[in-house]
Write a structure and sequence with these properties.
The protein is mainly β. The protein has a single domain, classed as Kelch-type beta propeller (Neuraminidase). It is built from one helix and 28 strands. Strand 18 and strand 19 form a beta hairpin.
Length: about 350
């Protein structure tokens, strides 16, 4: 039997969470039709306190709390992390010890804001020994475990984002396997699509792009569809980096043919929508088996990818698997952490703003 919803001080039902969410209007998207800016820059921020170095974090913005929330990740000491940090007014704050309940430590879970619940939702992820299939939400009262009657299978490396067209959280793909971590046991990749609405998971049709993980997905209000790019597929015994771009509208996946294509369409790059420039921003990643890692900055809008790297005065160092979220309170796209490749792995805990 799955655990009931855990709350701070009392038992809370999904209905009450939904009531909280429905009472709050969704953030209004900026007007579309304006070309993406070309005079952008990355600036390193220097808060007085920082989370420890890590990659594969779960990081998203909560418009009710007006803060970015960061949970867990993978530590350079080869372990999952289970701490919770919030970023507001230019500073990080560790709230871990103030929480009555929290998800088990993990990395690479799906994490996105659900305006129906008025809360951030976390699904899946993994630790050193297994993948998770639990669903948690985070709001002003802390972490709450949601009991669901159905859910996707245990997995990590998930693409998940809010779909305002269908009024649900959309989840695609992911992977499981290699347990315990580093054992080399075969991994399974998924091509199923799920929606989370009304406090429960509902499976939709499988996707036509095939099973893959490490994809990136975000809603594109300028073009009116869910945008998905890249990822990793298994072909025979080989891991293949995908460089395609897809849209999702009302239950239908469509392969796009955009102008331009990032050479590092990253299996572990990071994609987020930036309403300040009205475009999706992609940073970092690597090019398949070549082991080439990058720190390029690309934007996507109106069916076109644009490489901004040459126009940016300075960029964060090369990395993969960083966290990224748009902080509406400061009107900045924030990027945290990540790592560099073998054999000399480096893990970051720096914070950058894209404006």
């Amino acid at each position: 039997m799955r655990a009931a919803i855990v709350t701070i001080g009392c038992l809370v039902t999904i209905a009450s969470l939904l009531a909280v969410g429905s009472a709050t209007a969704q953030p209004t998207p900026r007007a579309t039709g304006v070309a993406a800016a070309t005079n952008n820059s990355w600036t390193e921020l220097l808060p007085t306190r920082m989370p420890t170095p890590r990659d594969s974090v779960q990081m998203a913005y909560d418009p009710l709390l007006h803060e970015v929330v960061l949970f867990g990740g993978y530590a350079p000491t080869i372990k999952p992390l289970g701490d919770t940090w919030v970023f507001k007014s230019g500073q990080w704050r560790d709230i871990t010890k103030s929480l009555v309940a929290a998800p088990p430590a993990r990395w690479n879970g799906g994490f996105a804001y659900d305006p129906q619940l008025g809360a951030l939702v976390l699904f899946g992820g993994r630790n050193l020994d297994k993948e998770f299939q639990d669903t948690w939400c985070f709001n002003a009262t802390g972490w709450h475990l949601i009991s669901t009657s159905s859910e996707p299978s245990p997995r990590n490396e998930i693409a998940m984002a809010w779909d305002p067209l269908d009024h649900c959280l959309l989840l695609y793909g992911g992977s499981s396997g290699d347990n315990p971590l580093g054992s080399g046991k075969p991994s399974k990749f998924y091509n199923d699509t799920w929606e989370f609405s009304g406090g429960n998971w509902h499976q939709l049709a499988n996707s036509p792009m095939g099973a893959r993980a490490r994809t990136q997905m975000v809603y594109d209000p300028a073009d009116g569809y869910m945008l998905l790019m890249g990822g990793t597929r298994h072909v025979a015994t080989t891991s293949v980096i995908m460089k395609d771009t897809w849209s999702y509208v009302n239950g239908t996946w469509t392969k796009l043919k955009p102008v331009g294509s990032p050479t590092l369409l990253a299996a572990t790059g990071t994609l987020a929508w930036d309403p300040a420039i009205d475009a999706a921003v992609l940073f970092g990643g690597y090019l398949g088996s070549t082991g080439v890692y990058g720190n390029a900055t690309w934007t996507y809008r109106s069916d076109a990818w644009t490489n901004l790297t040459a126009t940016i005065p300075s960029s964060p160092p090369v990395r993969v698997a960083c966290g990224m979220a748009f902080d509406s309170a400061s009107d900045q796209l924030l990027m945290f952490g990540g790592s560099t490749p073998a054999p000399n792995y480096s893990y970051y805990n720096d914070l950058w703003a894209f404006e």
